[in-house]
Structures are given as C-alpha cells and as structure tokens.
C-alpha cells in the first residue's frame, strides 16, 4: 500500500548505501513507507531511491551540519517521519588495546556512537510529532560481548546501545517505540571495511558457515515496524545458527 500527501509515513535509514541499510530501505519501501536513504555514497543511494521511489540524501552522520540538512530534507517531503533506522556504523581493525590505532578508535566512536546521537537528536522531535514513532538502532552482539582485539568496536557498540536504551526511559509517555537489533555475523561489507579492503581476510570471517544475510536482518526490522503502536520489541539478538558467540562458531571446514 502506498500513501501520499500528509498521510505518508516517512522512514529514514542511515548507512543505506549497502548491506543491512540498503536491504532495510527496500523492505520498508515495500511496506509503503517513503524511505529517505541517507549515506555518504551518492551514486548508490540515488540508484536505490530511484528504484524504491524514495529520496536520497547524501549524509555523513558524523557531521552535525550534514545531519541538520538531512532533517531539513525530511521537512520538504509531505508526510511525517515515523521511523528512524540508525544503521550507519562499523568496525575498523582488530588490534589489541596495547596496539590500539587511535584513528580507528576515533572513527568507530564517531560513526557508531556520535553518529547515532546526531541523527537521533535531529529527528526525535519529528518522530514524537508523528504520533507513532519508532527508533531502530542496529548495534551488534559486540554491544553485549567483548573479545580480544575488539575493544575499539565493542566499546563503541556498548556505548551506542547504552545511548539507545537510555531513550526508553527518557521518552516514556511519548509515542515513540525503541528497538535495538543486535546482529552477529552478517555477510555484508562489514568485514571488508574492518580489514581495510582485504578481501581474503574478510571472506575468512564467514568461511565454513552460513552467515546471516542483510535481508535476514531487514525482514526482522520490517516486522518490528509493522507492529501496532503499543508493541515495543525492546532488544532483538540475531545470530546465524552456526554462531554461539562473537568468538565461537561451528565451521564445516576450518579457516
Ligand atoms: C559484528 C558481529 O559476530 O561479526 O557486528 O563480530 S560479529
């Protein structure tokens, strides 16, 4: 069902140029949302928005001015912003604390934590005003676990989760639902980014098992978004059957 004019429900998805963000944009568009696809890679989101009848807004979530422009772009679309999917983020490196790469740490904290802060803060008034808002924040099992070499990423994901969960109390009494999605292994560009484009190393992460796909996660977000206003799916952990924890997986052949 598509809606138009002031009845139109708008869903803003960050990190929409690939992976979970792109798949979520497709699922929400199929549910009738006008999707605002936000990401840095202009060509990718333009093609996606074209395909799903949405709007592409080039946004770097770490830049408050760019995020303010994203909020203004939403004002120019008829309808109300009722869904925000905080999906932009990622990991860089797998160094020990002793060997920590400060640039990697800064990037992880800027994108995952401050990015979520900037976008959520900018869009919250609109989500509340919609009368039936939803904030989905895509964290990770790294928000629940720690592992050797993962401190930069796990600390950022723990912080992003804490920020998101704090809103549950702060928004109590307001018409906004809050859902944290914490995925385990999902076959996206995640590992390629983490290992700076090293394809062999990235593929090794998923070797010998069946990881989740971006669509697996997007379909769950679509389920969350399609619940009635009184139903809040608080926190959802999604792992492949072959993964018991961040460091423990079953592989049919070893890496
Ligand atoms: C990443 C989760 O299991 O690939 O967010 O380390 S995992």
Automatic annotation (TrEMBL):
The keyword Cytoplasm does not apply. It holds the Pfam family adh_short. Gene3D superfamilies: NAD(P)-binding Rossmann-like Domain (3.40.50.720). It comes from the Bacteria. Keywords: Oxidoreductase. InterPro entries: NAD(P)-bd_dom_sf (IPR036291), SDR_fam (IPR002347). The keyword Oxidoreductase applies. GO terms for molecular function: oxidoreductase activity, acting on the CH-OH group of donors, NAD or NADP as acceptor. Belongs to the short-chain dehydrogenases/reductases (SDR) family. This is SDR family oxidoreductase. It comes from Mycolicibacter minnesotensis.
């Amino acid at each position: 069902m598509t809606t138009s004019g002031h009845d139109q429900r708008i869903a803003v998805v960050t990190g929409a140029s690939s992976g979970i963000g792109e798949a979520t944009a497709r699922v929400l568009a199929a549910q009738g949302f006008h999707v605002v696809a936000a990401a840095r890679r202009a060509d990718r989101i333009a093609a996606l928005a074209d395909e799903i009848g949405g709007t592409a807004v080039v946004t770097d979530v770490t830049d408050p001015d760019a995020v303010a422009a994203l909020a203004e772009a939403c004002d120019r679309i008829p309808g109300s912003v009722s869904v925000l999917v905080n999906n932009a983020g990622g990991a860089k490196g797998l160094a020990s604390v002793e060997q920590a790469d400060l640039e990697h740490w800064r990037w992880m904290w800027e994108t995952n934590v401050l990015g979520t802060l900037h976008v959520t803060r900018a869009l919250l008034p609109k989500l509340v005003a919609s009368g039936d808002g939803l904030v989905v924040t895509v964290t990770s099992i790294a928000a629940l676990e720690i592992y050797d070499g993962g401190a930069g990423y796990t600390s950022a994901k723990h912080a992003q989760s804490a920020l998101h969960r704090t809103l549950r109390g702060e928004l109590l009494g307001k018409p906004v639902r809050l859902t944290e999605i914490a995925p385990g292994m999902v076959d996206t560009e995640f590992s390629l980014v983490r290992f700076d484009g090293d394809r062999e190393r990235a593929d090794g992460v998923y070797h010998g098992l069946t990881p989740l796909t971006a669509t697996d996660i997007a379909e769950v977000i679509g389920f969350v978004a399609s619940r009635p206003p009184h139903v809040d799916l608080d926190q959802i952990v999604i792992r492949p059957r072959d993964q018991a924890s961040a460091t423990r997986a079953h592989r049919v052949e070893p890496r």
